[in-house]
Amino acid sequence: MRVAEQIRTRYLSGQLATGERLPSRQQLSAEFGQSTDVVTAAVALLAEQGHLSLRRGRTPEVIAPAGPPRALDRSADAAPSGDYSADSTVVPAPAEVAARLGLPPEASVVKTAYRYRDGDRIIALRTSYESLAQTASSAVALPEAGPHRGAGVRRRMELLGHPVAAVQETVAIAEASPEQVQQFRIPPGAAVIAIARTHRGESGEALETSDLVLPASRWTLAYTIPTDRATG
To answer: Rounded to two decimals, what is the model's pTM?
Structure first.
């Protein structure tokens, strides 16, 4: 749309610097001769494309270009690249998580919340759940603490004597929740990619399950699917 293109031209040409705030919607409306609804839509488009940062109660801010969409490799050990932080807590399993792990309702699980960053941007959110009974009192009780911190699900489960035999994923497109809108600084109603992943043992039992959320306009999914040459 024309208004979005004109705003984009301003920061590409240096008229608007990274970190600078846009004029108010009323000012932009008067300048471009368009309604505030048109300006709001243009700002939302630029935010979804990763050019503007939206924060509640603040004027949109120009951010460094996000570059082309990132490719997320969905091989068995794949995780978003970049810096991340992680916090683990023991919580009662939500109903859906208990069902995915094959646990009784509200059984104790280790919940680990990951935030992946590129500079000051949060680019992905992941929440992992493991049965507390499975890992308690072991050296791998917490995914990001102890001697095996950051080793990944497969390695940690191997150390417990539960090798991962299969990884199951469900991929969906969803509307960003209010919390995700704030975390990713994207417009309300923007789409996110939601990936539910479960690691399973040799008997099909669930060893770990997680939910990965990505802003849809900033990521593509790249899958590596092994084939059996003997069977084609």
So the answer is: 0.73
